[in-house]
């Protein structure tokens, strides 16, 4: 009788133990769960004959990246990630739940659609907002300088954190966040670029080289680059298509102007005046806005390092001066910096404009954030400055007159 009772008690304890384990197992997340089991975007039954990317992008304005579609994966190539680059990058984006190709060589394999991303450049943030995927963002390089409103809200709510940038990148914090993707840029400087450290840590990193483009619409089209990682091709095609259509329509209006005022840009920085070349995106903006850019004949995509004397020689009688130091809040600040600026006709006539109307408390300039994704608005600003009669209803968004 004692043995029978003892046996029942043991069985009861064992049953309770088993039930407890089952309850805990149901409630606890599985650390090594297969993504296809928890991600509704993953394919449950792979069909080798099915095209998993029915919506595709076409690249018309950007020159820095290309994409090649296959049935269950797409291959992105970056040929010119920075100035004088001797290397390129290749990313193989594989639809979740389907097999990766066998011959990948040096390419990174990234599962799509991506569900968490860290952006190390503010220029990428408007892409996420336009595509409606800000909820995927978990970290940025500097929370203080962000202007994109939806991202600012997430920062305030503590849902997006600061992870540092380039040489000061916090790899440990990023590893804790464990993002599906990190978008960044490269300069070719191994000491300051963050992507080598991130790759070494086993993270997925994509180089965005939009700043290498020589036209405003070329830079803006990198929205499609971001979209590829989220399978948002359809949305990106529509969004960029509307931006390009607006830009081209406004540019056509400016082409009809009878006179083109002369203009120069930049400022003297530690003895050197960096003037954009005639084939740069800045020169393209001025041409499309109906201005006569005084360095348009210097067919260079980058910036020309010039002396103050060279600027005075060519630009003393220019009608307008744009895009100078953000520190200068007034005409007085300009003249205090260097009295020679007062010799310019544009300064005498008050035709000096800076692209920092949308500057936040942390020093973040939305011209270099929202402006990259909205070149039609930037162009409208420039036309309003040079030819106010062409767009009488437009009010300046990124530019302001410095008085």
Taking Cα atoms only, what radius of gyration do you get, to the nearest Å? Answer: 27 Å
Largest sheet: 5 strands, parallel
What's the number of extended β-strand segments? 17
Spans where pLDDT lies below 50 across 5 or more residues: 1-6, 16-37
Distance N to C terminus: 103 Å
Fraction of residues in helix: 25-40%
* Strand percent estimate: 15-25%
Q: Indicate the overall shape.
A: globular
Main structural class? alpha/beta
SS field, number of helical segments: 15
| Sheet with most strands: strand arrangement | 7-6-5-8-9
| Overall mean confidence score, pLDDT | 91
Oligomer: single chain
Quick gist of this model?
By secondary structure, this protein is α/β, with parallel strands linked by helices. The chain is 33% helix and 16% strand.
Fold and architecture overview:
It is a single chain. Helices cover 33% and strands 16% of the residues. By secondary structure, the protein is α/β, with parallel strands linked by helices. Helix 9 runs parallel beside helix 15 (375-386). The chain is built from 15 helices and 17 strands. Helix 3 links the parallel strand 5 (117-119) and strand 6 (137-140).
Produce the secondary structure layout.
Elements: H1 2-27, H2 35-38, E1 65-69, E2 73-78, E3 89-95, E4 108-112, E5 117-119, H3 125-130, E6 137-140, H4 149-156, E7 161-162, H5 171-177, E8 181-184, H6 195-200, E9 205-207, H7 216-220, H8 223-228, H9 233-255, E10 262-265, E11 268-269, E12 272-276, H10 281-288, E13 292-293, E14 303-306, H11 308-315, E15 320-322, H12 331-337, H13 345-348, E16 352-354, H14 370-373, H15 375-386, E17 400-401
Parallel strand pairs: 3-4, 5-6, 5-8, 6-7, 8-9, 10-13, 10-15, 15-16
Antiparallel strand pairs: 1-2, 2-3, 11-12, 12-14, 16-17
Helix pairs in contact: 9-15
């Amino acid at each position: 009788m004692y043995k029978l009772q003892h046996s029942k008690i043991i069985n009861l304890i064992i049953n309770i133990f088993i039930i407890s384990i089952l309850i805990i197992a149901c409630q606890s997340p599985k650390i090594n769960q297969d993504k296809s089991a928890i991600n509704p975007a993953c394919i449950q039954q792979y069909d080798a004959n099915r095209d998993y990317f029915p919506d595709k992008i076409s690249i018309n304005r950007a020159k820095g990246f290309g994409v090649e579609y296959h049935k269950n994966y797409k291959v992105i190539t970056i040929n010119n990630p920075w100035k004088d680059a001797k290397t390129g990058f290749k990313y193989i984006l594989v639809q979740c739940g389907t097999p990766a190709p066998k011959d990948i060589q040096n390419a990174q394999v990234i599962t799509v659609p991506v569900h968490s991303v860290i952006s190390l450049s503010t220029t990428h943030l408007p892409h996420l907002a336009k595509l409606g995927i800000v909820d995927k963002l978990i970290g940025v390089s500097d929370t203080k300088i962000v202007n994109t409103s939806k991202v600012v809200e997430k920062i305030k709510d503590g849902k997006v954190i600061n992870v540092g940038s380039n040489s000061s990148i916090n790899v440990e914090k990023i590893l804790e966040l464990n993002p599906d993707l990190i978008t960044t840029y490269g300069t070719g400087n191994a000491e300051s670029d963050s992507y080598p450290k991130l790759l070494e840590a086993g993270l997925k990193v994509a180089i965005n080289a939009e700043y290498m483009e020589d036209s405003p619409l070329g830079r803006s089209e990198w929205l499609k680059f971001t979209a590829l990682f989220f399978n948002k091709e359809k949305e990106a095609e529509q969004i960029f298509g509307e931006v390009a259509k607006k830009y081209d329509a406004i540019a056509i209006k400016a082409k009809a102007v009878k006179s083109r005022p002369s203009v120069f840009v930049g400022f003297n920085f530690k003895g050197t005046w960096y003037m954009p070349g005639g084939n740069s995106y800045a020169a393209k903006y001025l041409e499309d806005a109906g201005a006569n850019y005084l360095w348009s004949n210097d067919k260079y995509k980058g910036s020309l390092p010039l002396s103050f004397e060279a600027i005075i020689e060519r630009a003393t009688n220019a009608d307008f001066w744009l895009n100078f130091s953000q520190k200068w809040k007034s005409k007085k600040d300009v003249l205090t910096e260097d009295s020679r600026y007062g010799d310019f006709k544009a300064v005498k006539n008050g035709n000096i404009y800076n692209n920092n109307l949308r500057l936040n408390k942390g020093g973040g300039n939305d011209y270099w954030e929202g402006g990259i994704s909205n070149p039609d608005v930037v162009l409208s600003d420039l036309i309003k400055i040079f030819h106010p009669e062409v767009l009488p209803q437009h009010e300046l968004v990124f530019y302001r007159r410095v008085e």
